Amino acid sequence: MSVSRLLKHLLIPDWVARRPFSGVLLDRVEAAIHTSEQSHDAELQVALEPGLHLAALLRGLTPRARAVEVFSQLRVWDTERNSGVLIYLQLIDHAIEIVADRGINAKVPQAQWDEICRRMERAFAEEHYEQGVLTAIDDVTTLLAQHFPPVSGKRDELPDRPAML
User: How far apart are alpha carbons 74 and 97 in whole angstroms?
Assistant: First the structure.
């Protein structure tokens, strides 16, 4: 673990890390997720986490490992058709991970999720947060619609509002 990473997590207040994600942007993300889920038979969840606790940092928790933990904590894995997808944004590290349930991983390779993450990271580096997250939701929607067409009577199993951790 780098000292620089440790200091960023300990010294940057959560409100500073969350600042780019205003209530208006969260409303737009929520609407985008709601629209997305009309075009496929999967469940999409976005989670934003400013920083990590000291214990997690000291044990060297990576953004990917944390995303898998959040996938479990938010019960994204617990959808009826094993069709949950988590977009995890670790704001202080500027790290983005997509974790998909086993039903989706069988059809969509991790490399495709990783490319969406890298595009979002590039947009965020240019401070285009809204464009980055909404484009990523569109890209995820396109992949899900290809492999998991919508079904009638589908119920919304996960909240559309981004989870603020």
Answer: 15
What is residue 4's three-state secondary structure?
Answer: helix
Cβ-contact 121, 96 below 8 angstroms: yes
Question: Is pLDDT of 24 > 80?
Answer: yes
C-alpha of 64 from chain center: 11
Instruction: State how far the Cα of 100 lies from the Cα of 94, in Å rounded to an integer.
Output: 20
Residue 17: helix, strand or coil by DSSP?
Answer: helix
pLDDT at 1 over 70: no
Query: Taking residues 82-94, what's their average pLDDT?
Result: 93
| CATH no., domain 3-164 | 3.10.310.50
Tokens (6 digits) for 85: 């997808």
One-letter identity of residue 124: F
